[in-house]
Amino acid sequence: MSISHLSLVNQKLAHAGAIIRFLNESQSRQKLERQALFDAAVFHLQLGLHFYLRELADYHRIKNLSKIDSVEGLLSAMHEADRVSSEASELASLSEVGDSWLSQLSGAYAQLFKSPERPKEKKAFGHEGLIELREVDDNAPIVFSPEHLDSWLNSFKALVIRQRNTCAEY
Predict the structure, then answer these.
(1) At what angle do helices 146-169 and 101-111 cross, to 10 degrees?
(2) Distances (CA, A) of 116 to 101, 112, 113, 123
(3) pTM (predicted TM-score)
(4) Are 102 and 50 in contact (CB under 8 A)?
């Protein structure tokens, strides 16, 4: 296991934890500041995952660690090297379950890169006395709370500790 990846994972989890604590302590902050802190925590959690994937790849002696940037990338590299990893399989399972912490984290991270949608223009003529129709959007962004961040961080830490202990046994 590469000390550098292990250290980077620990560092990113510590950074996310510090941001989450600051976010929880600052309930009176403006909406912009709270959103910036939330985004920063999501970013650090995702970076922690990124480096954890590389840590697992390094542990299993996979070459070209710099090409591994997703769970699918890790699984593909493992397959090419004819290696099997229960840790990578667990991460893949978590990413496929829609309400798992990993799936939610990935969704929140993807939302950071989405451009806001332009509101639809209303027609010039009015319909007085009629109920306005609204389109139901199943792809509407999910609003996450600081409690979600806390849950993701704790779940991620528990997974890393458990998987590292399992790797240390072998």
Answers:
(1) 130
(2) 24, 10, 9, 21
(3) 0.83
(4) no
Which residues of the chain are modeled with pLDDT < 50? none
Q: At 134, is the secondary structure helix, strand, or coil?
A: coil
For residue 112, give both structure tokens: 């950071």
d(CA 63, CA 61): 6
What pLDDT does 51 receive?
A: 96
Question: Which ranges constitute the DSSP H helices of the chain?
Answer: 3-25, 31-59, 71-80, 86-96, 101-111, 146-169
Residue type, 89: S
- Give tens-digit pLDDT for 76-115: 999 999 998 899 999 999 999 989 999 999 999 999 998 8
Distance between CA 19 and CA 41 in Å, rounded? Answer: 6
b (16+ CB within 10 A) / e for 33-51 = eeeebbebbbbbbbbbbbb
